Amino acid sequence: MPLKKEGFFQNESSNMTFSAGVVIAHIKTPLSEVLHWARKMEHEAKEMDDNKDAFAIAVLKHSGEIEKTVFKWRLDDRYITETVSQIVSEINKDRLSNTFIKRLNQEMLRLMGKGSQFAENQMIETEMKRLSIRSCIKAKDESKEDFEKRKERIAEELRLSEILMKSKSMNNFLSFLNIADFIARQVKGGANEN
How many helices (H) and strands (E) does the chain have? Predict the structure, then answer.
């Protein structure tokens, strides 16, 4: 039995898919370039695999640097955008330092094999957890025991190793984290963009 929902007709048993291209650009970036990148990102999202249902984000920085990533919307039981929101929230509440993203970039690029594929999954997973735990910031009124529990919880909730394994490449994964960091900085106060 079809259902009318927000302008769409949907069959209860049908699996609708949604692919999107998103561009975040500096205000002085020409609109034609932004639209070009939006179409390009939508195309990359649709081309991810035959099932589509993916999103692609590009950040066009004023410096000319471009970060882009492509992922499926869902990671098993959770939307991957929830991880971006959690990273942004933890950084903005000063409960997580963005240094773990910077260190992951430095260290993971050294561990990559040819074609930006991951060589040692277990070693990478351990290092990601270690770096995310070390980047947690203790609140002034937080007990040491509560801080230790929170560090473990954040490392588990981020599920970075699962996101990495679903990623097309290490570069795609690192761009995902770099975009989350960029969004956090802009939300927090528009730190100087490079």
Answer: 7, 7
Q: Cβ atoms within 10 A of the Cβ of 187, count?
A: 13
Q: Which two tokens stand for residue 121?
A: 């999954």
How far does Cα 50 stand from its chain's mean position? 22
Burial class (CB in 10 A: 0-12, 13-18, 19+), 166: middle
d(CA 67, CA 16): 28
Other Cβ atoms closer than 10 A to 35: 11
User: What CATH number matches the domain at 1-72, 3.40.47.10, 3.30.70.270, 1.10.60.30, 3.30.780.10?
Assistant: 3.30.70.270
* Rounded CA separation 96/113 (Å): 29
Check pLDDT > 90 for residue 120.
no
pLDDT tens profile 22-60: 999 999 999 999 999 999 999 999 998 888 889 999 999
Domain boundaries, the chain: 1-72, 74-194
